[in-house]
Design goal:
It is built from four helices and 18 strands. It is an alpha+beta fold. It is globular. Bound molecules: FE2/S2 (inorganic) cluster and fe (ii) ion. FE2/S2 (inorganic) cluster binds next to loops.
Length: about 300
Amino acid sequence: MSAKYPRGWFVIGFSDDLEPSEVRPTRYFGRDFVVWRTESGEVRVFDAHCPHLGAHLGHGGMVEGDSIRCPFHAWGFDSTGKCTDIPYSSRVPPKARVGSHPTLERNGTLMMWFDPAGGAPEDYVPTLEEFGADAWTPWMHRMAIIETQPREVVENVADVAHFPNVHGNQVLSFEATFDGPSATQATRTTGYDKRGRLTEQRTVATYYGPAIQFSEMDGEYPTVILNAHVPIDENRLELRMGLLVHGIDYETKLGRTLGEMWIDALQEGYFQDVAIWEHKRWQDQPMLCDGDGPIDELRKWYAQFYEAS
Ligand code: FES
Ligand SMILES: [Fe+2]
């Protein structure tokens, strides 16, 4: 793998994380960006630093209509990144612009496209039927900054043998399919619910590209879970968890409390993995055995995102 970071779509927030005219500094892929929303509601991701004298647009930049103005000398950049206005100059240098990165707001999430080679975005992120549908809650979501690298997060789903030990459930069946930019695991597991009853759970979890996974789980209350990460640098990432639940009334206090307990429990499950990831080392040549799950296939599938498109 020559590139440091994979190519693809990355979730950088939920829609309700960013208001119109809001400006946020961020750091992803070892680089600085400014994430902002135009007054009319479009999300934009620009390189952070102004081409003039290098101020960070995310620290004090102001949105005006569909433009952002630098906090230092007030140069204005339109929503494509082109400088269109310098308040004290009659002429705008024709090449004055700030780098802009493709964005996508879908399923109530904010995404950016990142390709170290600068390739055009691909269209593989599905539209979820459940998002915004009747009897489904809105996203309940959490974000955590953790010290690990993306490969560990992605590999977790193919690592069947860790389920009983780390998560306390038994895998009854497991099937993985790899198809272009998507990788799907269909699993049946057993576990115990809060009343100590043995339950069986079916989950179909699909990665769309290197960093966005939706899992559909059946049961009395069907759920959709979003598991997404975006690298901050080579050793840290933002991990996002989102949960949609069918059949609880999120408008009521009880429903909302139930939902919040649910997402907290989900986060607890993720942190069972995080506790391992933050201290393990990456094993390039793992010593595998029967029963380990399709770790090799998963690695081959994931390598495609590091190759130039
Ligand atoms: S540094 Fe941005 S306008 Fe001068
Ligand atoms: Fe896990």
